[in-house]
């Protein structure tokens, strides 16, 4: 079973895809969902395990409209 994620916009410089404004994915070796927070009134995305912040305003400047479909395996609960 797979969960399907459709990415509509892509930034080639950062290699980040946007599903919508609140869901961003880092598309490097394996797709990683970025955490979304508000920092000083700006929407930012943060890579898990890293302190680097990428703002939506910076990301928006280089977005390219491209449809990418990710098929992620569904993880069931262990009980």
Concise description?
A 7-stranded antiparallel beta sheet has the order 6-5-4-3-2-1-7. Helix content is 6%, strand content 59%. The chain contains 1 helix and 7 strands.
Q: Quick check: average pLDDT?
A: 91
Major pleated sheet: 7 strands, antiparallel
Distance between the termini: 18 Å
β-strand number: 7
Provide keyphrases for this structure.
mainly beta; 7-stranded antiparallel β-sheet; 1 helix; globular
What does this structure look like?
By secondary structure, this protein is mainly β. 6% of the residues lie in helices and 59% in strands. The chain has one helix at 56-60; strands at residues 2-11, 16-20, 23-27, 31-39, 42-46, 53-55, 64-73. It has a 7-stranded antiparallel beta sheet with strand order 6-5-4-3-2-1-7. The longest helix has 5 residues, at 56-60. The radius of gyration is 13 Å and the shape is globular.
């Amino acid at each position: 079973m797979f969960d399907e994620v459709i990415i509509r916009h892509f930034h080639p410089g950062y290699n980040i895809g946007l599903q919508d404004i609140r869901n961003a994915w880092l598309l490097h070796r394996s797709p990683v969902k970025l955490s979304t927070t508000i920092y000083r009134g700006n929407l930012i995305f943060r890579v898990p395990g890293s302190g680097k912040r990428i703002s939506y305003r910076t990301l928006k400047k280089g977005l390219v409209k491209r449809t990418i479909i990710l098929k992620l395996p569904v993880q069931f609960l262990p009980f």
